[in-house]
Every structure is written in structure tokens, then in C-alpha cells.
């Protein structure tokens, strides 16, 4: 296959795979696509170890790193990371802490033994910059930025090192903001996607973004893409490749939490919800008692980014290991309905390509004279 | 182009066009697609006149009729149409009537001069059956049913007359319910569509439905399809054709209300909302003061189908012709963002086909060796 995306990176298939798991990232790149490691949850030291591992296991193939540098969040003006975190902790209302404690108790989750706020990593400019510095010391091919255009100096630094920059956008206006600061690749992500999403569907969004950014910019289609037919659809809409995420949560190599895995495998496409209950911004998750509770009448409402995640961060590992399991949720898109079987990462890549080829053959039969 | 849908109906392009306007229906069929008249707002006598006109203007090409026979609604057990309407009118709470009157007054809409409930046509089995009887006396090729599987006897009667039956479905389970009663064609409609919609996007929904209904059933892709690239994407996802609706609201032949037209032309893909404020079931509309008001804190909430529409039916023509215009809304999908120019119906058909061909050429360049 040959698109501007495959040519730019010298990859076989225009399949980009976002994952927080280094094994998946390396396996996708080795299989002919391009893995992109989500750096969000790693400290700079941890990220260094992850990237070193990938460098050793990716077989010389290109890979990328994704950081979160939101354009808007509480605390942007509150000083450096340490200072900001302290001040933000003090701003979390007692009502919210009580609601969370009661919710956890109701579901039998073990109580907290410490006050952890180290878990806030990468949700802010202050905390993401050290991740970028680590990433750019490695031979990465792509630096991706979620939640708004990356700072101009970050784009410039990446470009100096020959690293391409991608930005996620959920509408045409945001896409143009990204190209204005020199982003090379727009990941146009429809509302059906997992994690942070807008409200426009992939079907409607991709042609709009392709037309809005013009011929100089590569567009990848994201949201609802997990099968070869969807890959063909994404390219038919005008994209030069597809950006996938959810489908890598249920591969053999994935480090998805043990109690989330069976829920993901059992869920239908109707079992997700866009909710602010994790990060403070609308993001698509598995609909569980967690998302229900924050939407309920008793809910104090969610806090703005990054305070919502600061509030809950300490509870997440406890929810993952204790209690009745009903609060366990996970960021995932509507494609979760097709994720019913655990396969190897390379098999998922090959299945995507095989069904893509079948879809192309069918399309050509439709149009042949 | 050749799909099972074009072969079944002997049409040139697998483009199905839903419209309440007879001129659009006839023009799409004459241009090589297939027009489908929405019968909802016509009395049996009016529908007879509309179909007679189409018979005379469609040039012998096939066309269809779409009725609404919801599987679930208030009043199903309340007797015949006349009796049911009277009883349901009495069940509308005074609080809702007052909220509506205040809202209309606030926006300068002229007061009511009559109590009209004739506008409730076709939202129920009782009121839709006379429409079906009229439709089946005409040489229609397709009878489509929105909001759940049509009654088995209606399917049987259509089949006896050689008329194919289509059913709209917004998830795979509903699609199977339709095929269980003998529906020939599933219109699988994503959440981005205008009018009544589910919550799963077209990108995710189409492969699910295609796989769920098996090879015997033709699937049409609906929701977010208004351009040739989206048509290509719909077929790539496994559909045998596309079902379009919104894009026919802004063609030259359309009888779209005068004050709605400029709003449709100006709207972006982000200016729609799924709301119960029109029919009582979730349907996608232009987001205006009307949809905002019914979602606001002061709202008494919406009534179940068909009572919500009975409550508001009398006000709609007054909103359309008087007041500040802010309450004017219209059912439309997210594709409204691409509807920026008034063109003839035939031009829209040709543009769809032309961009589809371009998209196919691009896909083939991507895959050529």
C-alpha cells in the first residue's frame, strides 16, 4: 500500500496504533504499521526505560510517542509542576472527596493508605514537557499531541531533530489551529473514538478536515476503526491512513488491567459513554457504575482538568484490585463491540490488511463495467 | 454501478433519497437513484395526491414510500385513531402546555386560534395503516418503515404486491428483529443521521449490521452520507447502497420552510443535537432555542411518543411564520455542515457519483503495486 503516510515514514501499511503498552507499540511497527506509545502515565524516568526497551525490540522500524499537552486546563498559571500540584490539591472541594469515598465504600473498595498525587503525569504543559525531552532523545519518528495544538517551541524542536509532529483534532477549526503551528499530520478523530473525543462522527469529520487543512497536510482517520472495512472507509473518506487505539487493548501483548479485560471483550458497541468522570474533559469510556455514579442525581459534578484525575488517581489502582468490580471502567471506543477475541498484535495487523483487501475487491466489483 | 440494491430495483446508482417533498423524490429517481417519500405528515387523501403526482412525474422509474410504525408508543391500546387521539390529548399535563405557551410568548410567536390535533398523522400504528393502504395502491417499489419492525401483515401485504420492504435500524439487535419479520432491506443508520437515531456511529454500525443479518439481506448505510467520499465509505463498510436524507433539504426543489433554510445552509457539523423535544424519542435536530429550552432547568421534560408531537404540532406552523425565529429548528444530521449551497436535485446526485468515482480512483492508486 502506498499513501503519503506510508511514504513519509517508510512503513508498509498506513496503520497507526496508539497504545500505552510498549510490547504492542513494538509489535505493530514490526508488523508493518507504526506503533505510538502513550506517554501520559509514565514519569520521565519510566518513559526512558520504556523507550529504551522499544529501541531494542522494534527491529529498526519507526515508532512514535504521544504526549498530552492540553491547550486549556486549570493551573496553567500556577507555577512549576510541584507548586501547581500542591495548589490544585488544595482546590479540590471536600464535597467531591466525600462523594468519591462514599462511592468506593459502597462498592467495597479498600480504603486509601496514602495521599498520592504523583499520578498526575502529563495532563499539563508543566508535566508533559519532561516527557517530550525524554522522547526526543530517542530515535522516534513521530511526536503526537492530544488535546489541542502543541506549543510552537515543541514543534520546532521536534522538526529540528527530524521528528514529524501529529495533532489530534475533533473538528475542522481545531485542525486548522494545529496546522497553523506547523503540525505535519492531523489525526481527525470522530466521536465514536475511545478517550477524549468531540461530538462529530468520523464519517462526517474526515472529509471536512481533509478539505480544511489542504493538500500539504496528511490526515489520519480515527474513531471507530478496528477492521479492514473501516480502514477502507477511512481511506475512502480522504485520509492517508488510520489511527487506531481501542483494538490494541485486547491483544495478547496488552497490559490491560485484569478486571477490565473481560468487560472489554463482552461489551457491545452500545456499552460506551462520553463522560467527564475520568479527566474532567469529555472522553469515551466503558459505561459502568463509575460513569453512572458521576452522572447521577447525587453527583457533585466533575471537576475541571486536571483536578478530576488528581481526585481519582489514587483510587484507580484500588478499584482495579479490590471491591465488587462494578466501578472498573476503561477508555475505549464504540469499536469495543467488535473486540470479542484475544489475538496477537501481528494477527490484528494482518486481519486489518486482509479485510481491507477484500473490501477493495468488493468495491471494484461494484464499479466494474 | 452494480450492487444487489441496484439490481433489485433496476436503478443506476445505489443512492436512496428520503424526502417529504414529491419533487425531490421524482427528481432523484429520474436521475438514476431512488426517491422515497416520507408519508408521515400527509393525510391519506393528501398522500393519494402526492403519489399520483409522482406517478406522473417519475418517468417510469422506481420510487418508494416511508411510513412510521413505531413498535412502542403511548396509546397503542387506546382504541382506534379517533378514540386514541382524544384520550391522549387529555393525558397531556397542564404544566407542559404552560411551558410551551410561555416559551412561544417569550419568542413572540402568535397565539393559537384553534386546538388542532389533526397534525398527529402516522406516528402510530392506527394512523399509519391508512397511509400504507394508499401507498400500496400505487406502483411503488419499496415500502420503508422507521422506528422498529413493521407489523407482519403489512410485510406480507407488500410482498404480495411485489413491493420490497425496508426497515431502519440503529443497532444489530434491532436489525435482526426486522429480518425476523421478513424485511428485505435494512437501513442501518448511525447516530450522526438526522431524525430518529441511536447512539452508535455509522462507521461502527454498518459492519456490525452486515455481519448480523447475513448474506440474504441487503444493507443500506445511513447517517453522515452526503458526499461521494462518504458514499464510497458506506460501500467499503459492506453496504449495498446508501440512504440519504438531510442533503435533500437544501436542493432547489425542496419545500423546506423558508426560515429553516438559511439556518441549514449556515450550520456546521457541530450545530446539531439529539433531542426528544420534537417527537418524544431521541432524534437529531438543528440545535436552536427550541432544543435548548426543552433541555433547560425550567423544562418539565419531554412527553413520550406520540404525546410530545401532539403537544407541539399546533405550534409548529406558527413558529414557522411568526416570532423572532429563534425557535425554528429542523430534523437534520451532522452532514448539515457540508450543505452550504443550493443545487438542483439532479446536480446533487451527479456530484455524489462524481466524487465517488474520484474516491475509487484514489483508493486504487493506494493499492496498486
Automatic annotation (TrEMBL), chains A, B:
PANTHER family noted in UniProt: 2-NITROPROPANE DIOXYGENASE, MONOOXYGENASE RV1533-RELATED
Gene Ontology molecular-function annotations: oxidoreductase activity
EC number: 1.13.12.-
InterPro entries documented for this protein: Aldolase_TIM (IPR013785), NMO (IPR004136)
Entry superkingdom: Bacteria
Organism expressing this protein natively: Actinomadura sediminis
Protein name: NAD(P)H-dependent flavin oxidoreductase
Lineage, opening ranks: Bacteria, Bacillati, Actinomycetota, Actinomycetes, Streptosporangiales
UniProt keyword annotations, A-Z: Flavoprotein, FMN, Oxidoreductase
Amino acid at each position: 500500500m502506498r499513501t503519503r503516510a506510508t511514504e513519509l515514514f517508510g512503513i508498509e501499511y498506513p496503520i497507526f496504533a496508539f497504545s500505552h503498552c510498549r510490547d504492542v507499540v513494538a509489535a505493530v511497527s514490526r508488523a508493518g504499521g507504526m506503533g505510538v506509545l502513550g506517554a501520559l502515565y509514565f514519569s520521565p524516568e519510566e518513559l526512558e526505560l520504556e523507550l529504551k526497551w522499544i529501541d531494542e525490540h522494534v527491529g529498526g522500524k519507526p515508532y512514535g510517542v504521544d504526549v498530552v499537552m492540553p491547550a486549556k486546563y486549570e493551573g496553567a498559571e500556577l507555577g512549576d509542576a510541584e507548586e501547581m500540584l500542591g495548589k490544585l490539591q488544595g482546590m479540590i472541594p471536600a464535597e467531591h472527596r466525600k462523594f468519591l469515598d462514599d462511592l468506593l465504600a459502597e462498592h467495597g473498595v479498600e480504603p486509601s493508605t496514602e495521599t498520592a498525587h504523583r499520578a498526575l503525569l502529563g495532563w499539563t504543559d508543566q508535566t508533559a514537557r519532561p516527557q517530550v525531552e525524554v522522547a526526543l532523545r530517542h530515535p522516534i519518528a513521530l511526536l503526537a499531541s492530544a488535546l489541542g495544538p502543541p506549543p510552537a517551541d515543541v514543534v520546532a524542536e521536534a522538526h529540528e531533530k527530524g521528528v514529524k509532529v501529529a495533532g489530534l483534532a475533533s473538528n475542522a477549526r481545531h485542525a486548522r489551529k494545529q496546522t497553523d503551528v506547523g503540525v505535519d499530520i492531523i489525526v481527525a478523530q470522530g466521536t465514536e473514538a475511545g478517550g477524549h473525543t468531540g461530538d462529530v462522527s468520523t464519517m462526517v469529520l474526515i472529509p471536512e478536515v481533509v478539505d480544511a487543512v489542504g493538500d500539504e497536510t496528511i490526515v489520519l482517520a480515527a474513531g471507530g476503526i478496528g477492521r479492514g472495512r473501516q480502514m477502507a472507509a477511512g481511506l475512502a473518506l480522504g485520509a492517508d491512513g488510520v489511527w487506531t487505539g481501542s483494538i490494541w487493548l485486547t491483544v495478547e501483548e496488552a497490559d490491560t488491567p485484569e478486571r477490565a479485560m473481560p468487560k472489554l471483550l463482552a461489551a457491545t458497541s452500545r456499552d460506551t459513554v462520553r463522560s467527564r468522570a475520568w479527566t474532567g474533559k469529555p472522553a469515551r469510556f466503558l459505561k459502568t457504575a463509575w460513569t453512572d455514579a458521576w452522572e447521577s442525581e447525587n453527583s457533585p459534578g466533575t471537576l475541571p482538568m486536571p483536578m478530576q484525575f488528581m481526585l481519582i488517581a489514587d483510587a484507580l489502582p484500588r478499584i482495579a484490585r479490590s471491591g465488587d468490580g462494578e466501578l472498573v471502567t476503561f477508555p475505549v471506543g464504540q469499536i469495543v463491540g467488535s473486540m470479542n477475541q484475544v489475538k496477537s498484535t501481528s494477527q490484528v495487523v494482518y486481519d486489518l490488511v486482509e479485510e481491507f483487501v477484500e473490501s477493495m475487491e468488493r468495491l471494484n466489483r461494484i464499479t466494474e463495467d
